[in-house]
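notes to self, project folder thing:

trying the whole complex as one job this time. last attempt i did each chain seperately and stitching them together was a nightmare. two parts in total, labels are on each line so i dont mix them up again. if this works i'll redo the older ones the same way
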Amino acid sequence: MASSSTVQTLSRRQLLKVASALGLSTAALGLRPAWASSAGLSNIYPQGVEQGNEISLTVRRESLPIAGKMGKPITLNGTSPGPLIRLREGQDAVLKVTNLLDEETSVHWHGLILPPEMDGVPGVSFAGIAPGETFTARFPVIQNGTYWYHSHSGLQEQLGHAGPLIIDAAEPEAFTYDREHVLLLTDWTFEDPQDVFRHLKVAEGYYNYQERTLADFFADVAENGFADTVAQRSMWERMRMSSRDIADVTGSTYTYLMNGHAANDNWTALFKPGEKVRLRVINGSAMTYFDVRIPGLKMTVVSADGQPVQPVPVDEFRIAVAETYDVIIEPEGDRAYTVFAESMDRSGYARGTLAPRLGMVAPIPPRRKIADRGMEAMAAHGGMDHSGMQGMDHSNMQGMDHSGMQGMNHSNMQGMDHSNMQGMDHSGMQGMDHSGMQGMDHSNMQGMDYPGEQEPTPESRTTGLLPVGTAQPGSRYDQAGIGIDPSERRVLVYSDLKAYTPWPDVRPPGRELELQLTGNMERYMWSFNDKTFSEVNGPIHFEHGERLRLIFVNNTMMEHPIHLHGMWMELENGAGKLIPRKHTLNVKPGERVSALVSADAPGSWAFHCHLLYHMDAGMFRVVKVA
Amino acid sequence: MRFTTHLLAGLGFLTFTSATLVHADGVSDEGYDVPPGWGLPMEQHNFGTFLVDRLEYAWTDENEEAVVWDFQGWYGGDFQRVYIKGEGENEQGDGEDAEFESLEVLYSHLIADFWELQGGVGYQGGIASSDHPERTYAVLSLLGTMPYSIEIDTSLRVSDEGDVSASLEAEYDVRVTQRTILQPRAEIEVAASDVKAFGIGEGLNSTRLGMRLRYELTRKFAPYIGAYWEKQYGNTADMTREEFGEVEGTGVVAGVRMWF
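result (full assembly):
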């Protein structure tokens, strides 16, 4: 397969299509890839595998059936999503990408540590691949684990220009397994991605058919009373926002795919009862967060973003766009299991089946009801007793008048973010107790009179920074996020993630860099520090060799998966020496998340929100390490 | 918020914890040192749309019928856009051609998260006929969304004769089901002086309250039915009375809202 010509690839693809139509696995056709071991590793990924010292990828646009209809995706070696690229830790990768589109393309090797000119971001790493051209990416493979690749040009990723990238470890891994399957989750639309973008720009809520209606209002009145309901609703109305804005693009246009197969295709991964099966789950979506579970099976998370973590047994995990998780499962018996990946807004799902043989099905669980966003997202100030609150975000408030307040108890607050407040008047307050507050950030406040409010801690008095690994006040690492009921089942949260072994750089950060995640939902403008990419005229600077702390403060009511190219982000989730590292960090609405970065990769790197339309709308920056 | 940030950046911050160690923006201003010929990784895109908010047939309580329209289109980026807006009607069976109550071309600038300030020129009068009096005017508009999600379009107009008038339109969407939307609507017109040719009097001219119920077959195409009540006041009403017209009336409408 190593240097397969286009002709060979196409014929194999057609074979695979026939096989898939007949419900056969590649193994059944005798097409078992060369690397398959005697342990029966087969059918790992239905779109084919490319491996070897030199791998060729041909990018083109062609008609293919998707979910029973003809679509026109971008294909890589004839399939969309593309084939599995399999590398080995320690090898020198040679990846030849030939562009047969009528527009520029690119391939970014997501999560890989490599030289900046090989990173595949047009305008940052290289010029892009012009139509008819071939670009060869050559780099030493110095890591292992589950990653993926995708276009970094325009909105091509939405057209299926993505695929899994697996790197086999040079040394034995921390866990064992008998078989593995790759689960690449994507969101496909038959609309032109440019139209999707225009719909988001022109008509807020275009794809949301789960908005609150009068019926919801009356149901809430019946449950909570008229006054409470009106108060709650008017807070949202006042902000001109929808509490049901969980996903910008939904199942109303998306078909959610698992390894390129729609839920009804019943794509099946095989196992032998009693085997330990490693699932490499990749969220290669443009816009969709998924909640993944396999009813009847415990999943043990062993790796996050390709990096080994201490095993965490869970029933379900939320996977943000661009994240990867490896889980070990141990299916038993002559029965099928449903792999259920529900979109975060509950508007649809991807689904596959784990079974000892083809043709089996297991029940598909019902979808949950869409959740309403609550206080943490709405940047509001309800009620007078704030004790025990965490992660309140008061950004964007204007003209608050606290005069005449009495007996406020702010004890035990954590992580209040009052950034960007204007004109607060706290005159006339009496008997306020702010004891026990931590890490309040009142930066950017105007005209506040809060004399003697905060005594710095001994630590911050010397360096001004929180100790290494400390979870930022305002983080919610113990929560999976919107629409998850933790009492229902055990769901993975960021505070569960602990590195398998400590990472080498244990230096404390020399400085902090805080970035506000900002947006204007109405206009569909997304930005860092209120500036879209086209409004800034220069990169973010990291000094080569420095250790710094990145702090993300989400001032919007959407989740943002923040991705830094070229360097790991070590998530300060309180794991101490076992600080986990990731390439993509999910920042929930109103949340404050921090990561340590060793700026050891000189060059220019992309840094952005990995929601495709957020990135294209301007939530993108260049980081320059020099 | 954008402007708040700009303002604050110039004022210096009150800092409590670590903010002193943080570069305010984390960004320098020296540009990107990429080789010539490389494009930018992200470009700002221009978009456009054309919304026919109302295209309706109206039946009044005086047995008059009319075709009424109200459209708005724009093209541009996040901050700057060009708008075209038009409202008009063709009264049926009056022997006269259609007329534009207003036809405007405006430059629009985003001044706050939910607000655009717009300026341009407009035309009022017949469409390719001399059945109706004509005038041109300069217009300044504020278009946006108020708290409680009330859509506002307010305009100040100065005609070629120096006559000043203003209008306010407000709309609010009540979601009955995911596709059925009830929309109350209000319009108020005022003028600074009498303009006889157009039947406009000094002071409050008229108010119009309407309610439409639309069904979004798609987000872009929604038929609707509705009703309205309108009333004229002061000098405007007097002028109408002199012409033996009615100063208060109701009507029902059926039409379609669509955009492209």
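what i see at first glance: The longest strand of chain B covers residues 47-60.
need to look closer tmrw
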